[in-house]
Design brief:
By secondary structure, the protein is α+β, with helices and mostly antiparallel strands. Helix content is 32%, strand content 29%. It folds into 3 domains: 154 residues, Nucleotidyltransferase, domain 5; 166 residues, Nucleotidyltransferase, domain 5, CATH 3.30.420; 106 residues, Substrate Binding Domain Of DNAk, Chain A, domain 1. It is globular, with a radius of gyration of 24 Å.
């Protein structure tokens, strides 16, 4: 029996699914937390229950993520047996640094044949029986509301463009509700919102005025509360919706941005899909239906849609290696060599991709050239600095390095170079530099994987 794992590394929640003999199964969901309970690393609910002064778990982004990935892998293996492949859904705005960290984390955790996929593409893959065509996939996440245009045909999925709106994310809506509560309770004098008030707002948003469903969660959020939160009476559903409505109108603009970036008219869409967690999907779905002139399709389990699609992707690449799932470069890449970096790989380029630039020496007998790769985020961030060595001695401008930047299917770039005349490979040596978050090398990954192998969450 072939078991593949699907993982959705959400900002607040990690969702884990599996495809078991072609049957999709949600496995578990746990808080996206890592902590230390004495000498032991704990993940999920155990980490969320630690006191605020508990010792943190140190390490790089990849090492932090690896604990969550390992917990997910063990959950699937315990319930369903050995895992043969894994798909990991990541936010479409994740750049090279984050994607490299996720891939390193998968290697540390021992995931076999892991493949990254943009979450909206994973959502599209979770609906195999839906009709082909151009889809608008909307994902209501904790950090942002993301709208993506995908093209689906004959089992292939191509991501055309995405637009992100942090102001519609779950955290932003929590803050809006908390601000209204604070004014009503006369708690807004200094403009600060307490963690308890934000926790109450999150419960109200997730249950959207359903007092019966929210009762237990509110009791936990308000444990130990002082007046005036003690004896708190939840607002009605219509009040909550009224508070969120001005912000929810931003659905119009983010949909317009995604469609414009893809060059697709709303009339060309065959499906509008809405995924994510919580009862706020009701108000977001209603607004989306007004904007698109059709009600959105909700997956059977909207919260697990990305994880289930990622598991299906893993199955495709284990059993059907010719399957086509197309992702794109989320942010442009620029290359610099002793001057201002210039565009090399444009945003939206189909993965995998490769671009090259010819770089001449600037001094007589110069045998090495230093280059920097930058990701054009806001602000731009450096991805690495390399020394391209073993050039032949020649007058300035007569020796050339052909610098190649390859971005693989997971969106992680690699730099190589050759000497122009002979075609001989140049030695591309990574150089340490401030502000660069380099990935882990093979030896470091192996050491960390060995250390984690005996850990049980």
């Amino acid at each position: 029996m072939t078991v593949t794992l699907g993982l959705d590394l959400g900002h607040d929640t990690v969702r884990v699914a599996a495809l078991i003999a072609d049957r999709p199964v949600p496995v578990t969901a746990f808080p996206s937390r890592v902590g230390r309970d004495g000498d032991r690393v704990v993940v999920g609910r155990a980490a969320a229950a630690l006191p605020p002064d508990a010792a943190p778990v140190t390490g790089s982004m990849a090492e932090q993520l690896a604990w969550k990935v390992r917990a997910a892998l063990l959950a699937v293996e315990t319930a369903h047996g050995p895992v043969f492949g894994a798909g990991i859904a990541v936010p479409p705005e994740f750049g090279a640094v984050e994607r490299r960290a996720v891939r390193d984390a998968a290697a540390i955790a021992g995931l076999p044949a892991a493949r990254l996929v943009a979450a909206p593409v994973a959502v599209a893959l979770s609906l195999p029986s839906a009709p082909d065509g151009r889809w608008l996939v909307c994902d209501a996440g904790a950090a942002a509301f993301t709208v993506t245009v995908v093209d689906r045909a004959g089992g292939a999925v191509d991501r055309l463009a995405s637009a992100v709106e942090p102001g519609l994310g779950g955290h932003a809506l929590d803050r809006i509700i908390a601000e209204h509560l604070a004014r009503g309770l006369d708690l807004a004098a200094d403009g600060a919102l307490s963690p308890m008030l934000l926790a109450v707002a999150k419960v109200l948003k997730e249950h959207l005025g359903n007092a019966a469903a929210a009762e237990a969660a509110l009791a936990a959020a308000l444990e130990g509360a002082e007046p005036p939160l003690r004896g708190f009476r939840p607002p009605r559903r219509d009040e909550l919706e009224l508070w969120m409505t001005p912000r929810v109108r931003a659905v119009d603009e983010v949909c317009t941005r995604a469609l414009a970036a893809a060059g697709v008219a709303s009339t060309e869409l065959s499906e509008v899909v809405l995924a994510g967690g919580g009862a706020r999907l009701l108000i977001l779905g209603r607004r989306l239906g007004q904007v698109m002139a059709r009600p959105p399709r909700l997956p059977a389990d909207p919260g697990f849609a990305a994880a289930l699609g990622a598991a299906r992707l893993a199955r495709m690449f284990v059993a059907e290696p010719t399957a086509v799932v197309v992702d794109v470069v989320p942010h442009a890449l620029a290359l610099g060599a002793g001057a201002e970096p210039t565009l090399l790989v444009p945003a939206g380029a189909v993965l995998p991709t490769r671009e090259a630039r010819l770089i001449a020496t600037r001094s007589d007998d110069e045998v090495a050239i230093e280059v920097e790769l930058w990701e054009q985020t806001a602000p731009p961030r450096p991805l690495g600095r390399w020394r391209l060595g073993d050039l032949p001695t020649a007058p300035a401008g007569d020796a050339f390095a052909l610098c190649n930047v390859t971005v693989d299917v997971d969106g992680v770039p690699r730099v190589t170079a050759t000497e122009l005349v002979s075609g001989a490979a140049l030695v591309a040596t990574p150089m340490a530099a401030p502000g660069i978050e380099a990935g882990l090398d093979a030896d470091a990954i192996a050491a960390r994987r060995a250390a984690m192998a005996e850990w049980i969450p």
